[in-house]
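Self-study notes.
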Amino acid sequence: MKERLPAGMPIKDQQTTRNGAMIAVRDLRKAIGDEEILRGVDLDVAVGETLAIIGRSGGGKSVLLKHLIGLMQPDAGEIWVAGKNITGMSERQLTGIRQKVGILFQSGALFDSMTVEENIAFPLREAGMRDVSAMRARVNEVLELVELQGENSKMPESLSGGMRKRVGLARAIIRQPSCVLYDEPTSGLDPVVSDSINHLIRRLQERFQITSIVVTHDMKSAMQVADRIAYLHEGRIYFDGTPTELQQCDDPIIQDFLLGRSEAAPHQDRAG
């Protein structure tokens, strides 16, 4: 049985794309300058699934993630989110999509001049919410979810790296999204804090059936959180399977990546 969110945090009905996936990418292509970064990406993410996207540094993982929420527009291809093709949507049209899809940026992207509570409440104010008591109640609910109860008045400068990530995640889920995108959620964190972030990602998926896409270079993290792992190689999805299937794959390109070996003739992508 699906667990209910705390009072005031009902989970959104999760619409799906034409093929039943929460997110579907078809033949996605993107060049930056003279360099082709994405060269025909095809990908499906099922409702309630956690997908980890891995790949070499500079291989286009973050570029792909930004396309999924309309922060970048493709040169060609389609991106379907919650039943709608977002390709070519205006900023106004994307507003509704971004309510369904939250994002945790690599840095946390907190406003340094705002308290923890003000940072988390920012999306609610942007959406037109004016009831201060209701906003504070919602903030307290998500702070409890990310295990930061009572930290409302702290400023970002006083937070550890792990706490900043948790505050960023609280802000990402404050509008009750159906899907959360994570850009290198454990980057710069020590192993203990990284492990706690991984458990939090997994717990949100298991308790609330949130669809999650995790871009990471951390293989331990990918193995911990993912139902499926997609390996982005030279602008395309080279491997798509379970963590166990990835570990057992004897393909030389996969083995080179898993063992941290450079390829004989690596493709030099420069985008993140």
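Second protein, same conventions, sequence then structure:
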Amino acid sequence: MKKITLLSIMLVALCKMSASAQDIRLNLYTGYVFDNRFDSYYDAFNYYDGKIEGGFQWGGGLEFIIDNGVGIEALYIRQETKAPTTYLDGGSYNDIEFTNFDLAMNYILIGGGKNVKTANGKVEGYGKLMAGMVIANIDNPDNGNSNSFTKFAWGLKAGANIWVTPAIGIKMQAQLLSAVQSVGGSVYFGTGGTGAGLSAYSTIYQFTLGGGLAIKFPSKAAK
């Protein structure tokens, strides 16, 4: 229900912005996201320690430029990776286990910020704050168990568009995404059944360097 509500709000907001936008852009993103460690030591019998491995990250966004270079963007970002994790969930055997989980991270965000052009208009710097949610799917290859979670996510990014034509720009940017309280013991990474699970949580931070393309479409408001 929360996912449906958030997506509905985003859709209504996009419809309203499209009517007043000076131009509309399709932004395509690609980059390398670095490793991120996570851990939680609730007590001697309930803990986990692992990392989300770095790798390829991709996505896209629809951006509306309003007034004075202010841009509002709805975007989707995805990464498919591994999460090697050592854990003990306080189960009946109380054994330390290791699993290399399959993990897919899906970010759905709305971002806002400023776009500033140089005097000749060929280079346009930008900085944006983002907020929304992350939907993560986790598969345990050792026992076939699967799980998923949806949590609040936020992010920020900064970079530049280099306009090679009036409508096509090359993007270069740095980005930080964070999934708040998104990893939680046996609920998500454990064996799924024997123990009570952990009551502590670990926040994920994912840092990305990359680029992409910006494709500009004139809107009705600009005519």
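Instructor comment on the second fold: The chain has one domain: 2-222.
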